[in-house]
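quick one, 409 residues, struct below
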Amino acid sequence: MQLKYKIMVDPLIIRQDFPIFRHHPNLAYLDNAATMQKPETVIQGVANFYRKENANIHRGVYQLAIEATEKYERVRHRAASLIGAPSTKNIVYTSGTTAGINLVVQSFLEKRLSKDDEVLITAMEHHANLIPWQMVCKKTGAQLVVIPMNERGELDMDAFKERLSGRTKMVAAVHISNTLGSINPVEDIVDLAHKRGVPVLIDGAQSVAHYPIDVKEMDCDFFVFSGHKVFGPTGVGILYGKEEHLSSMAPVFFGGDMIREVSFEDTIFAEHPQKFEAGTTNIAGIIGLGYAMMFLQQYNKKQIVKYLDELGGYARQELKSVKSLKIVGKAKRKSPIISFHFKNIHPHDVATFLGAENIAIRAGHHCTQPLMDIFDIPGTSRASFTFYNTFEEVDRMVKVLKEMKKFLS
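---
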């Protein structure tokens, strides 16, 4: 169905949908890569479920349970629509990106991995897309192989081609670096891996909210993202998997609501995706995620990308006017995530100074410690934007950074 976009990307209008900006009218919230603020529809959707609609899903035959189940399962349809999945059977509810990756590691990869096999990841992975693969390699004797990047923060695709071999059993790559903002050529990564019969997982935590995603066109085997980074609640997420993979995977959590038949001697599991969703899930959170996706789908992604390209470009240009500030990551394809540092000022001091002026950024290693080691820095200050952010907020940040420099000098 062709969506009709009824709302233009105007940050001043969009901000009116977010109660936090009414409670904190002077807040410049530039920490969207960590988590996004929630629109009123999401907050009310969760609250109304508990106020008026609360019941457990599946199996209940009374009206509240039937309606809760229908609402819960409709979110699966919306998630499939958001990322271009062919069916709701490809959509597994998780507690977030981290849980989705761990499920793939434990249920899909581990049984296929043995000594001398290799798993390829990139040098810019979040710890959530590094440690699970590292642990399964340690457990099985396989090798974790890292795809390097250049000084601009772009993947070395020639090195990727060289490292991809008959020993490679899995490739895991971030779509957009949460630290550098680099947009990786995931279509090329998938294509090259598939030519060798290697499955690929894409971490889409930083891309789904802003960029058009079509997993069929991308042809990735798995795609993961978190609800709280698409304007939804924390504690929920989505794992997309190809039909043939999910069919072959065994559940790793066991309990109620993921079975077809149980005896004391044996258990027959339900089909996917239900077999991966043991116990009572975060029903209200998933329903809230549905409202978040409804909010997001009001907007044309091309308009979002255009606005954020302009905003991110403006921010990077203005930051260059701050003496001794160095931007880390200068890839040609960039998202509105900007990391920077000063030679003699700790990132936490920068964030504290900005925070005193109600400008919220993040500071530290951003769960990418190996990446910081590559650049030989302890961490960075990071400003990350979404489409409720404004050019005026960039000006405020730059002004305070210049004042900080004067004060500290």
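Confidence is low (pLDDT under 50) at residues 1-6.
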